[in-house]
Design a protein that fits this description.
- By secondary structure, this protein is mostly beta strands.
- The protein is built from no helices and 16 strands.
- The strands form 4 sheets. Strands 9-16-15-11-13 form a 5-stranded mixed sheet, with no helix packed on it.
- A hairpin with a 7-residue loop joins β15 and β16.
- The protein is rod-shaped and about 125 Å long.
Length: about 210
């Protein structure tokens, strides 16, 4: 999001009443729409550009007031976006002994054609059995980051969930990675004895 200050000044000797500021494109916004200015007073209007699509974007800003004429201002902006690529769409942890854990990794890459940072704002799991170790991070163009997710089963059952990756690539929705794994009991073995004694035995020679 980019912001530009627009200064409106009353250069008359009478009171200026701004009754509305109309923006005709939702990619542009203003923070103030109604105010009154005495002679020589100024008002700073913050005009912001937060594009929702890629490319050149045009709009207009119409200032309605008790001045002789309404004022129309043209708005222009160009939007670019980071490009996200995740190298896995699913992770299968297989069988994991309960009360232990298994960790898998995946890569998040910034494949933007422009020099735009990829911002990963949040990574969450829909199933608390799958643990993500997340802090918000930024990936520069043509760079990648390895991310870990850990399966920590506590009961004997099949577990499923999704890892949700929130980002600033406006051409893609939230990225989802399917997760699954099964909690199992560790195998046990029992021996009839832990000691074998053959005693004395003749050497057996094969000719």
């Amino acid at each position: 999001e980019k912001k530009v200050n627009l200064i409106i000044k009353n250069i008359s000797i009478v009171e200026l009443k701004v009754s509305d500021i109309i923006v005709n494109n939702s990619n542009f916004k203003v923070n103030t729409k109604v105010f009154t200015l005495q002679s020589n007073q100024e008002q700073i209007i913050e005009v912001s550009f937060k594009p929702q699509v890629i490319g050149n974007i045009e709009g207009s800003l119409l200032i309605k007031s008790n001045a002789q004429n309404d004022i129309l201002i043209s708005l222009f902006g160009n939007s670019v976006s980071a490009g996200i690529f995740v190298n896995k769409s699913s992770i299968d942890f297989g069988d994991v002994t309960i009360k232990t854990q298994k960790t898998e990794t995946f890569l998040i890459s910034n494949i933007s054609e422009k020099d735009v940072d990829l911002i990963i704002s949040e990574v969450t799991s829909t199933n608390e059995t799958f643990k993500e170790f997340f802090e918000a991070f930024i990936i520069k163009k043509e760079n990648a980051l390895q991310v870990q997710v850990t399966f920590v089963p506590t009961i004997i059952t099949q577990q499923t969930g999704k890892l949700l990756i929130y980002h600033n690539d406006i051409e893609q929705e939230v990225i989802e990675i399917d997760l699954k794994g099964r909690g199992v009991i560790a195998s046990n073995i029992q021996l009839s004895t832990n000691y074998i004694n053959f005693g004395s035995s003749e050497v057996y020679e094969v000719s």
